[in-house]
Every structure is written in structure tokens, then in C-alpha cells.
Write a structure and sequence with these properties.
By secondary structure, the chain is of the alpha/beta class. The radius of gyration is 19 Å and the shape is globular. Helices cover about 35% and strands about 25% of the residues. Bound molecules: adenosine-5'-triphosphate and magnesium ion.
């Protein structure tokens, strides 16, 4: 937009659509149906948490969004275009980065080599050296361990590396699958602080977490998924106060 463009009257201003929109998505593992028409959306700049019990379909939802799993029905739109069924590498090029459950690092490769792999997409390849320096600045511990095998890092450091590797692709949307899994409470806090600072830099985040209250605390909104269906949606603060959610997920 140029400065000389007159501001349209409010009636003509259409609200921009959500950055991510998932509509009626189903997913199967062979005969087993894991998702039954999942609807959710994430607006630019939001942090949104997807909550649910073990096996509810959280990881499956993220896998559909990032193109690892093709939904037989329903659709995914990102930044105004249909991305349903595109291969995962195309979706990374479009600006979605997925930090998978269990981190999936290359343990025998160095920290630096793992980071460089995250920056291989064509859109950012020219900025790869600069992004590498940015990441070791953002995560000083990765700078210190730069030439060490990723498998020798602590759990918290490996999670930071997995996040940093995803950021190497300069995503507009970051999908995080249980980043605090298996980490001590103090390290978990660090991971949440990191997610918050990434969001503050303008990256939109869709988060899956077991630490429900901590996740809602850094989120704008949340969804609850049960047996492959979204059963609740709301403002994060409202979900955090909800008695049924506190009982189901916190045992309170
Ligand atoms: N590779 C697979 N093959 C067969 N069934 C699968 C596979 N992956 C997941 N499932 C099943 O699909 C359902 C949803 O799994 P999903 O991994 O999405 O759950 P989740 O909400 O991420 O759970 P968790 O909290 O344990 O990570 C579960 O019933 C699970 O057993
Ligand atoms: Mg999972």
C-alpha cells in the first residue's frame, strides 16, 4: 500500500482472512479414522493452543497442516491459498514450519549441521549464513555447542535446537508439538519463554501442549480436541478458568 492510497470507508474494508484455516478435515491411519471434521483457524500474530488427551488427534492435526498426512476430505488454507494435499516441502516454502513431537533431530550431526538443514528451502537459502548467526545469538547455548553432535545435548537444548532449526526457514506460522515433553519444570519454563519471544517477533504459533495452564497463559485462544473432533474453542483465559477443562486436563 502506498501513502497516497486513500483509506477506504469502513464498510468497504474487508477483514483479512485468518492466516491458517482448517475446515472439515478428516484423517485416517489405514482403516482407523483419527480426525472427524476438524475446524480451526489461526489469525496472523496469534498464539493458539490445541489441547486434548493422549490420542485425541493433536499430532495428526499438525501433520495434516504441514502436509505429512493427506486428508481425504476437508481443506487447509494458508495465507489465502489452498494448501490441502501439497507435499510437505512445498508447504515449508510457503511459510509453515513444524517442530515435530520428539524433536526428530539428526543426533550424529552437529548442532550447526542440523540448523543448516532447516534453512535449505529455496525462499531463504541465500540468507542461510545470516540466519545461522541469528539463531546462535537467539539461543547462545547453541552457539556454545555449535560443533557438538546434536545427540549429546540435554533435552532442553535439543528442544531449543529443534525450534531454532524450524526458524531457519523464516516461517510465518510455527507448529509446535509438545515442546516441553520430558523436560524438567525449570527447562519447561524456558521453552515457554522462548515461544513467547518468538511470537513477539511476529511469528504466528499453533501450539500443542500437555502443560495446559502454562500453554494457555502464553496463548490468545485455544481449542479442545476429543476423539478427533473439536469440542471447545475460546479465549485462552476463558478456557483456563473453565471447570470442565480444569477437571479433565489438570485433575483439579
Ligand atoms: N501411525 C499411526 N498408525 C495408526 N494409528 C495412529 C498412528 N498415529 C496415530 N494413530 C492413532 O490416531 C489417534 C490420534 O493420534 P495422535 O497422535 O494425533 O494423538 P495426540 O493427540 O497427538 O496424542 P498424544 O498426546 O499421545 O501425542 C490415536 O488413536 C492414535 O493411536
Ligand atoms: Mg501427539
Amino acid at each position: 500500500m502506498t501513502l497516497s492510497t486513500p483509506t477506504p470507508p469502513p464498510s468497504a474494508t474487508s477483514r483479512p482472512g485468518p492466516l491458517l484455516s482448517v475446515r472439515g478435515v478428516t484423517a485416517f491411519y489405514d482403516e482407523f479414522q483419527a480426525l472427524w471434521g476438524v475446524d480451526l483457524e489461526v489469525r496472523e500474530g496469534e498464539v493458539v493452543t490445541l489441547l486434548g488427551a493422549n490420542g485425541a488427534g493433536k499430532t495428526t492435526t499438525l501433520r495434516v497442516i504441514s502436509g505429512l498426512l493427506r486428508p481425504p476430505s476437508g481443506g487447509v488454507r494458508f495465507a489465502g491459498r489452498e494448501i490441502t494435499g501439497l507435499p510437505a516441502h512445498r508447504i515449508v516454502e510457503l511459510g509453515i514450519a513444524h517442530v515435530p513431537e520428539g524433536r526428530q533431530l539428526f543426533p550424529l550431526m552437529s548442532v550447526e549441521e542440523n540448523l543448516l538443514l532447516g534453512g535449505r528451502v529455496a525462499r531463504v537459502r541465500a540468507r542461510r549464513p545470516a540466519n545461522l548467526e541469528r539463531m546462535v545469538e537467539l539461543f547462545p547455548i547453541l552457539g556454545e555447542r555449535r560443533h557438538q553432535a546434536a545427540g549429546t545435548l540435554s533435552g532442553g537444548e535439543q528442544q531449543m535446537l529443534a525450534i531454532a532449526r524450524a526458524l531457519m526457514s523464516e516461517p510465518r506460522l510455527l507448529l509446535l508439538d509438545e515442546p516441553s515433553l520430558g523436560l524438567a519444570p525449570r527447562v519447561t519454563e524456558e521453552v515457554f519463554a522462548t515461544v513467547r519471544s518468538i511470537a513477539a517477533r511476529g511469528v504466528t504459533v499453533l501450539l500443542v501442549e500437555q502443560n495446559v495452564l502454562e500453554a494457555l497463559e502464553i496463548s490468545d485462544r485455544g481449542y479442545v480436541i476429543e476423539h478427533g473432533r473439536i469440542v471447545r474453542a475460546g479465549a485462552a483465559a476463558e478456557l483456563a478458568r473453565d471447570a470442565a477443562i480444569r477437571e479433565a486436563y489438570l485433575g483439579l
